[in-house]
Design a protein that fits this description.
The chain starts with a helix and ends in a 6-residue tail after the last strand. Strands 3-2-1-4-5-7-6 form a seven-stranded mixed β-sheet, with helices on both faces. About 35% of the residues lie in helices and about 25% in strands. By secondary structure, it is α/β, with parallel strands linked by helices. It has a single domain, classed as Rossmann fold. It has seven helices and seven strands, in the order H-H-E-H-E-H-E-E-H-E-H-H-E-E.
Length: about 230
């Protein structure tokens, strides 16, 4: 999978840049607005699986201190090419999750289109819980099993070349249970996005409709947790 993301890094960056130029980067808008509502001003944010760094960059421009990490060297190369002057932001390549999930390290963690590709989602969430300062905030997207668009795209590899690398999809009830059993309670969400309707004027009307967006994003807060 790392090789796949290395190969796609340039396309990812160009596609996001085009969406931003057209004022149509819905993912970035949603994550940043949620962070501004839930994370203390100037808080230290980990962008886990930051890809080409565009979301990290937007968060830093909103005043957060940001650490963007990814296992893909190609993605991090795209991120480091961004103009970071005046921003409190760093990017680095990692090999193992434990490298950056030290205890009580962050005020918030952002995880955008990552958890569905991880073999052990519980292990990842437990690591996030450990790394957050109580009461820390997790802003995480998940692959939405209820989406009609996702069902269509997952059947067509030409549309979604990464479908074969996904290990998980959830409906909202299942994902909420996953969060709860790993020490998180949901405070906002889900907001659904990533469908052709994102580009329509009426797109925002369907943010709460699970049948539409192929991804859902939620805000969850860490709570005292003692894994069995």
């Amino acid at each position: 999978m790392k090789t796949l993301f290395d190969e796609l890094a340039g396309k990812f960056a160009r596609d996001i840049d085009r969406a931003m130029q057209e004022d149509n980067y819905v993912r970035g808008w949603l994550f940043v607005k949620l962070a501004e509502r839930a994370v203390p001003a100037g808080g230290y944010v980990l962008d886990y699986g930051c890809g080409p760094g565009r979301l990290s960059h937007l968060l830093a421009r909103s005043g957060f201190r940001v650490r963007g990490v990814d296992t893909s060297e190609g993605m991090i190369a795209q991120a480091r090419a961004l103009d970071r002057q005046g921003l409190n932001i760093e990017f680095e390549t990692i090999e193992k999750i434990d490298e950056i999930l030290e205890p009580d390290a962050y005020d918030a963690i952002v995880c955008s289109s990552v958890i569905e590709y991880v073999l052990d989602a519980d292990e990842l969430l437990r690591g996030f819980h450990r790394a957050l300062r109580e009461p820390g905030v997790l802003i995480v997207s998940y692959a939405n099993k209820s989406s009609l668009w996702r069902r269509h795209w997952d059947r067509d590899a030409r549309v979604n070349p990464m479908a074969a690398s996904q290990h998980h999809v959830w409906d909202w009830r299942g994902f909420r249970t996953l969060l709860a059993q790993n020490g998180f309670h949901t405070i906002v969400g889900p907001k659904f996005f990533e469908s052709p309707w994102d580009r329509r004027l009426w797109g925002p009307l369907f943010r709460s409709v699970p049948l539409v967006g192929s991804l859902g994003v939620v805000v969850a807060r860490s709570a005292p947790f003692h894994p069995s």
